[in-house]
Amino acid sequence: MRSAYRFINSREKIMKGVFLASALFSVVALATITVFLLMNGVPFIAKTGFGNFIFGTKWAPIADSPAYGIFSMIVASLYVTALSVLFGVGVGLFTAVCLYKFCPKKLASFIRQTVNLLAGIPSVIFGLFGMTVIVPFIRDYISPTGVGYGILSSSIVLGIMVLPTIVSVSLDAMNAVPGSYFEGALALGATKEEATFKVMLPAAKSGILAGVVLAIGRAIGETMAVIMVIGGSAEMPRSLFQSVRTLTANIAMGATEIKGEAEYALIATGVVLFVFTLLLNVSFSLLKRDGDGKSKKKAKVGKK
């Protein structure tokens, strides 16, 4: 008995060590990436000048007089991310609502599995689809300038790419809300649509917001699909039908071509992208905490 107990005890300790190491691995990986970016990117930003680097509009790393301004790429990234998330959230949220209460179960299961399959398609395939279908369509039927590459094309492609995230997370969030909420709303005389949009969606807003944040992170960090449909010109965006360049596209397009000081400029661009992502996650945490605090206050007031 003692030997068996020792064996079980030692096995539990080993597994605890394995679990702890697995948990710490992601922390170590994040810390390593952060240190790498800060050590190589921040000195370059300080050398170039924060204002010149962030708010400069000229990007010419291999010119005789190099210029490292990424403001046009920051604006392009924000435009593309905002439009793609608006498209993805609009379509994805209505899709989730349809699958939740307005679709037969067998058909809903089939549609959900089909939407989830989108997550397994490589981003280069989305880019190829955008090049061969979306870009020619926009060029021939929508663009007033005859240019199909640009912000609108890349936003549509990214909007399709973030659909699985928004649909799955939003649907799971609504399914996590107690069914008594929906039944109670119906019992009080609400229609099916009113119970869904006025009761279930507000109750699931925390999970839906999490899906939106994940979609924003996917959109702002996407590279290959964006490169294939956005054009690639480092110019200030003035139209949805204009060849521009995002931060991620700038890093990918220059990573294998430029060396020396210009390479540190790409790493500094990565620092800016990293800060954007960090601010996004912090903002979500604050919004969620504020929402939870208000919900608790309302619950206390209701009890009184």
Would you mind describing this structure in some detail?
β1 and β2 form a beta hairpin. The chain is globular. The protein is an all-alpha fold and 304 residues long. α4 crosses α7 and α5 packs across α6. 79% of the residues lie in helices and 1% in strands. The chain is built from 13 helices and two strands, in the order ααββααααααααααα. The protein has a two-stranded antiparallel ribbon with strand order 1-2. The model has no long low-confidence stretch (mean pLDDT 86). The N and C termini lie far apart (57 Å).
Distance between the terminal alpha carbons, to the nearest Å? 57 Å
Please report which band the strand proportion falls in: under 5%, 5-15%, 15-25%, 25-35%, 35-45% or over 45%. under 5%
Largest pleated sheet: 2 strands, antiparallel
Note the run of SSEs as H and E.
HHEEHHHHHHHHHHH
* Residue windows where pLDDT falls under 50 for at least 5 positions: none
Oligomeric form:
single chain
Helical run tally: 13
What's the short story on this structure?
This protein has 304 residues and is an all-alpha fold. 79% of the residues lie in helices and 1% in strands.
